[in-house]
Amino acid sequence: MINKTLKLFALVISTLALVGGLRAAPPTVGDVGDVDSFGSNAKYMGAASGFITLSPACTPAPTPVPPATADDNQCFNLSPAPATTTFSAQDICRINLPKNSTTDLIYPVLTFFTNYQLQNSTGVAQPQAIFLYSASLTLVSAVLNDPSIIDPNTGLPANGQLIFVFSPNQFRVDRSLAVGERVRNRLDYSRAGNAGINKATLLSEGFSQHVVNEIFNKPMTIRMDVTGTAQFVTDATITCNMRLFGD
User: Fold this and answer.
1) Are 120 and 181 contacting, i.e. CB atoms less than 8 angstroms apart?
2) Burial class for 110, CB neighbours closer than 10 Å (0-12, 13-18, 19+)
3) Fewer Cβ atoms within 10 Å of its own Cβ: the N or the C terminal residue of the chain?
4) Going residue by residue through the chain (247 aa), what tens digit of pLDDT does each one get?
5) Distance separating alpha carbons of residues 119 and 37, to the nearest angstrom
6) How does strand 73-77 pair with strand 170-177?
7) Residue 171 DSSP SS3
8) Residue 209, SS3 per DSSP
């Protein structure tokens, strides 16, 4: 009887050990996609906002570089219809991260509040009125000043920064306007980076493990840049918001 009990006890222990071992196995890329950040607690790493204005007459007038009243409040003069206006709001907002802010991941969530008016005052129907803009994030780090570090997007030295575009990242309106037609719209939306900026992606793009570790171990700045085009736009405002998470 004792022998049977011991055998049963051994069987139970073996079964529990097997189940425990199965549960302890780490997830794979096929299971969760991003194994580096899996199971980590999310860290809040700050928020920033910037403001873009399109106007027939900015006050005060834009300065050459950047075309702004201030870095976080940039105004661009609209050309009279039917001419097209292009704008480039560089460094519209930024978050300065101290060293070791995150382990493997920088996860951005971008939110935009957009208000614009299209109007056709030319006296003839117009086949195309356009308002579009797209946002990108630039990672600025002293580590990237090394001339041997090549940006895979350009094939050139990184020169202190890397640009990340999370597709699709574009707001676009492209439509016709009847004679005298006027329409004002407001749209609020958010865009998340899905994989974000992570070590695994940088390694897959050809950066060495040492460089990737140094980028995450040292201070860095994440800034937002917005470029766009306007035609038959009488006025527009874009509030650009960025929040970062890490692990």
Assistant:
1) yes
2) buried
3) N
4) 555 554 544 444 455 444 454 456 788 877 777 777 777 788 999 999 999 999 999 876 666 555 455 568 899 999 999 999 999 999 999 999 999 999 999 999 999 999 999 999 999 999 999 999 999 999 999 999 999 999 888 889 999 999 988 766 789 999 999 999 999 999 998 888 777 899 998 998 889 999 999 999 999 999 999 999 999 999 999 999 999 999 9
5) 48
6) unpaired
7) strand
8) helix
pTM of the model: 0.82
> Strands 182-192, 105-119: parallel, antiparallel or unpaired by DSSP?
antiparallel
Q: In whole angstroms, give the CA distance from residue 89 to residue 67.
A: 7
Pair of tokens at residue 103: 């382990």
Q: Note the residue count of the chain.
A: 247
What are the sequence ranges of the domains in the chain? 30-246
Spell 164-178 as b/e; 16+ CB within 10 A means b.
bebeebebebeeebe
Contacts of 245 (CB under 8 A, 6+ apart): 42, 43, 44, 45, 105, 106, 107, 108, 109
Amino acid code (one letter) for 104: D
- Point out which residues pair with 51 in neighbouring strands: 73, 239
Task: In whole angstroms, give the CA distance from residue 110 to residue 188.
Answer: 11
